[in-house]
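Internal QA ticket QA-208
Title: Verify multi-chain structure generation after dependency bump
Assignee: T.L.

Test input:
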Amino acid sequence: MRIHEADLPGVGRKFWLHTHTGEKITILRHNTGKREIYSFLKGEEFPSRCIELSEEEARQIGAVLVGEIHPKTVEQLDVVLKDLIIDWVKLEPGCPGAGRRIGDLQIRKRTGVSIVTILRGEETIPAPGPEEVLQVEDVLLVVAHGASAMKAFRQLLKD
Amino acid sequence: MPDLLFELGAIMVVLFLGGLLAIRLGQSVILAYILIGLLLQGVVTHGPLVNALSTVGLLLLFFLGLEFSLQQMKRFWRPMAASGTVDLLVNLPIGILLGRLLGWDWLGACYLGGILYISSSAVVTKALIDTRQAANPESDTIVGILVFEDLVIVLYLALLASMTTAGEWGSGGVEALGWALARVVAFGFLFLAIPYVFLPRLNRFLHIEQAELFLLFAFGLVILYAAAAARLGLSEAIGAFVAGLLLSETAHKERLVERLSPFRDLFTAIFFLSFGMTIRIGELAEGWAVVFLILLAALLGKLLSGYLAGRLRRLSVRASLGIGLSLWPRGEFSIVLAGVAAAGLGGAAGAHILPLTGFLVFSSGILGLIAMKEFPRVWKWWSAERSEAADQEPEKGKG
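Actual output:
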């Protein structure tokens, strides 16, 4: 899979991709900020549909399509699936939770929140055990049931 | 004085209404402006003033230069060189040949070659967006050819204008061509290469906080560049283009576009109006057959070159024909070429080139936009017919 792109001086920039189903999607980023998404059915040379988006709409849809947002660009952003909340939490310097073991904090017992993965620099630690020691600058990918659980978890790290 | 104000105001309103109508009809506003100029010929009493104002339409060329950037050129050159060359080798000779067949001298014929060669970036780019064809696989080839053409035509126009002021091709021959080339190189050196060395200084100098002073400086620079080029016999258009080229390398490109584009929009409308006012359509009265033949050649030439360029880039037959159709509209540069030719040439070429170009720009513009809009439908219908015929054939064989 490869996204191709081409400059269109006076218009903007064109990106296109052949999906696994054989369709082609072309995205046009106009100089004016307008975005257009064209879909071409398999083997078709004329678009079957064109959707016009404003810059803001395009950004929103982009976030939805990505599903996860890289913590470097967005400090914290809730992705809500029914009442299940997936969130990124970064341990800032001076955060009392840093330097302690997950087991000692009794996170799941006290808040019901699960730490799914820890991102530490270039390293990822999937499904960390209770003896894992949290460090400053760690980014935790956590799952919580309901916003109150997430709030309690953040409070716990600060205490 | 009140009459003058009344006339100017009325012209603007008529242009506005014409533009509105053109958009309703799905046509280019440029064509409406030209047509209004043609219709207002006997009516406008302040023709010289309109002409003077239209000179500021040079901003169009300035913007063209501004939108070029060396970085972009570097990226663009390789993929576009082949299709651009095909387009040049097919369409330029067609016009030159037709000019010679009309009995024009070489110089006049070369102007006609340029007029037939250069498609209108303004009309085609806008049409690509409006008809939602910018996402099609052929769109990058179309836009690439437009960029290539604009660059070629600037050099071509500079050479031709320089030759025109240097006297007849026949009398000077190779020597005249040499002098023309020398002046083009001298202008490029003096007004582009040397200032380029001082670019950081120009960059700092352009940090002018007051919007109106920034505007005054930018306008002054563009107009002086145009005047200098005209003095060297290279046509004002070249000067404006080179000014744009130089300023595109500064950090103030965005601000220039933002501040100057309202002026461009206003004065290009007057530029096309003024062009319409200079067309003496009566001049064509005796030769309509010839005029239509030239239009036909202009359309077929682009269809052929577009087809070849597309196939060369391994595009489908449909996409390749689409390239040709999309490049039908001629426009701003054809008009500039015709203007320079009409001012400098005598004889049949000088007399006929303006009305001829007017007709060509107008017809190719309308036909081009209709073709772009209708082509997808026609192609779908035709390929359906074809596949139906293909389905029926084996049955016949069985029977």
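Spot checks passed. Chain A has a mean pLDDT of 81.
Status: verified.
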